[in-house]
Structure formats: structure tokens, C-alpha cells
Design a protein that fits this description.
The structure is a single chain. The chain has 343 residues and is an alpha/beta fold. 44% of the residues lie in helices and 15% in strands. The chain has 3 domains: 44 residues, no CATH class; 133 residues, Rossmann fold; 132 residues, Rossmann fold (3-Layer(aba) Sandwich), CATH 3.40.50.2300.
Length: 343
């Protein structure tokens, strides 16, 4: 059986209320008595009950994290950052994935409320405004990451996707490419808009035309979506010499689709990704991509929520805050000077 406060009280010869106060750090208990109680608790293998503690403090020390998908390595690295910071502060995570499904979103919000999470970090770019309002209505402290409707929330962490997309496009232009296509994810809202806008801005900055048939969107950001897009690009009258992909997952699919079609990368067509997931360094050829500081984004979001929770707990006001982080271009083997021989 698990050791209880009453067991410690019996061993140390004090009341169970004294044990409870000593273990919670109450300054009314003498240092000698508190030390003796803590030693006994350690020797007896006592573990405090999180449920009992939450009833007393009205806090669960649990942070809810809502993702688009569990199987996207981009989000897993952000979660590592969130967890790293949260654990240091004594918090654990309750993680759920919406899968772009409104019914799942509603159930997730209900679960967050039922489990009384102290706050929520939303990593889902398409999380609905309706469910966001439900969380706000119940006064959940919320921090959003790369969210398409962050104006509905007061605390947010963003990556500068416009800058990242411009850097990738500029790299291709510097290599001599003029027929550059963009492959987007139509489900990603603000994120894909920022990346497409960065792509267009850089083309305009160098006086290159924006060809609308070179901008193609798939309903998702998976390798399969990337693979499916290859047929579209290869059927264009003037096949592009480079494809800028919304993310690494789509770029990996494009690499496989081009290989299946007998198109050599980068000799005949250059390909870029975005995010720098771990797999991107191990594709054939290795993928030129943009390195988002994913773990730092998670740490920043977690720290912002912890600051917000402390402010709420102390009855202080906390000013709205938005933080924008920048990443770095990683040039690998999937990009080179354009081969203008028609495929």
C-alpha cells in the first residue's frame, strides 16, 4: 500500500495536519520538525497525491497542448520544447490532436475543461474560432503558435514565415532559376498565405513574373500530397526548373514523385522544403530547407504561458504579447543551377 500522511504522522509522533503543512512548506512549522517529517516521508517512499493537491490549490499543474496532427515531426519538436520548459516548472502535458476535425476539436476542449488543465497552448493553425471562444469563455489562459487567427487571442508565438520563404526563393534566384513554382497546403491558413506571399514578394523584388499556374495547392501537407502534385507540375506547358514546397513533408513526397517519373533532382529540377525536420537531412538527395527554431518556439510558448499563469495566480494583469522568431536557410543537395533542357 502507498504511504499516506497519516502513516508519516504516526511514525513522527505529530498530527497529520502538521505533516501536511510541513510537506507543503508552511513556515509555521519549525525547521527541526519539518526536516524530521521530510526525512521520514523520503524513507517511507511517500508520493504526494496530485489530485488532492489540485483540490487544495485549485491548480492541476497540467498544460493542455492542441496539435493538428500527432504524426507530423514538425509538431513533435515543438512539443519537446514545450515539455522541456514545463517540466522544469513542475508541469506535465495533456496532448491532443484535432486532425482538422471540428467534432474532435469540440471533444478536446471538453476534455481540457473536464481535466481542469491550468492553461492551453494551441499549435493547430486551423483551430476554430468557436472552440477558441469556448476556452476563453471559461477563462483558460491561452498561448497560440503560428495560428491563422491569432488576432482572436492575446498571447502568441510566430515564426517569420514571410522572411523564410523569401530566403528560400532568393536562393533559387541566385542559382539562376526563373521558372520557380510553389506547392502549398490549402488547409494551413495563415501559414501558407505568409509563405506564398514571401515567395511572390521575392519574385517581384527581382523583377520576375508571378505565374499563377506555377502556384498549386494540395488539401494537406503530407508526403502523399507532395507526391500527388508532381503530375500537375510535369503537365505544365513550361515545366518549372524549381519547386518551393510548403514544408519538408510535401517536399519528400515531391522527391519520390519526381524519381518515379524519371526526373533527376537537382540536375533537372530543384526542390526545397521548409521546417528542417530530422528526415530532411537523410533524403536522396538531402533536402535544401529552412530551419525553423522549432524547439525554441516550443520553449518560448511554454514560458509565455507559465508567465501568464503566474500572473493570474498572483492577481496581476498581463499585457498582450506577440513574439516573432526567425530561422536560417540550410542549403543541401536538392538545389543547383537550372538545367534548361526540357524534361
Amino acid at each position: 500500500m502507498a504511504t499516506t500522511i497519516k502513516d508519516i504522522a504516526k511514525r513522527t509522533g505529530v498530527s497529520h495536519s502538521t505533516v501536511s503543512r510541513a510537506l507543503s512548506g508552511n513556515s509555521l512549522i519549525s525547521a527541526e520538525t519539518a526536516g524530521r517529517i521530510r526525512l521520514a516521508a523520503h524513507e517511507m517512499g511517500y508520493q504526494a497525491s496530485a489530485a488532492a493537491r489540485s483540490l487544495k490549490t485549485n491548480r492541476t499543474n497540467v498544460i493542455g497542448v492542441i496539435l493538428n496532427s500527432m504524426d507530423d515531426p514538425f509538431f513533435s519538436e515543438i512539443v519537446y520544447g514545450i515539455e522541456e520548459c514545463a517540466q522544469e516548472a513542475g508541469y506535465s502535458l495533456f496532448i491532443a490532436a484535432s486532425q482538422h476535425d471540428p467534432i474532435r476539436e469540440k471533444k478536446i476542449v471538453q476534455a481540457m475543461m473536464e481535466h481542469r488543465t491550468d492553461g492551453v497552448i494551441i499549435c493547430s493553425s486551423s483551430f476554430s474560432a468557436e472552440q477558441g471562444r469556448q476556452l476563453l469563455k471559461h477563462e483558460f489562459p491561452i498561448v497560440v503558435i503560428n495560428h491563422q487567427a491569432a488576432e482572436n487571442f492575446h498571447y502568441s508565438i510566430f515564426h517569420d514565415d514571410i522572411d523564410g520563404s523569401r530566403q528560400i526563393t532568393r536562393h533559387l534566384i541566385d542559382l539562376g532559376h526563373t521558372r520557380i513554382a510553389y506547392l502549398g497546403n490549402s488547409l494551413s491558413g495563415r501559414t501558407v498565405l505568409d509563405r506564398v506571399n514571401g515567395f511572390k514578394m521575392e519574385l517581384q523584388a527581382f523583377g520576375l513574373p508571378i505565374q499563377e499556374d506555377y502556384i498549386h495547392h494540395e488539401a494537406g501537407g503530407t508526403p502523399q500530397n507532395g507526391y500527388n502534385s508532381v503530375e500537375y507540375f510535369l503537365k505544365l506547358h513550361d515545366i518549372p526548373t524549381a519547386i518551393v514546397c510548403f514544408n519538408d513533408m510535401m517536399a519528400i513526397g515531391v522527391l519520390n514523385g519526381l524519381q518515379a517519373a524519371g526526373v533527376k533532382v537537382p540536375d533537372e529540377l530543384s526542390v526545397t522544403g521548409f521546417d528542417n525536420i530530422t528526415l530532411s537531412a537523410y533524403t536522396t538527395p538531402s533536402l535544401t530547407t529552412f530551419d525553423q527554431p522549432k524547439r525554441s518556439i516550443g520553449v518560448e510558448a511554454s514560458q509565455l504561458l507559465l508567465d501568464l499563469l503566474r500572473s493570474h495566480h498572483n492577481g496581476n494583469t498581463f499585457q498582450p504579447k506577440e513574439k516573432i522568431l526567425k530561422g536560417n536557410l540550410l542549403i543541401r543537395q536538392s538545389t543547383t543551377n537550372p538545367n534548361l533542357v526540357k524534361i
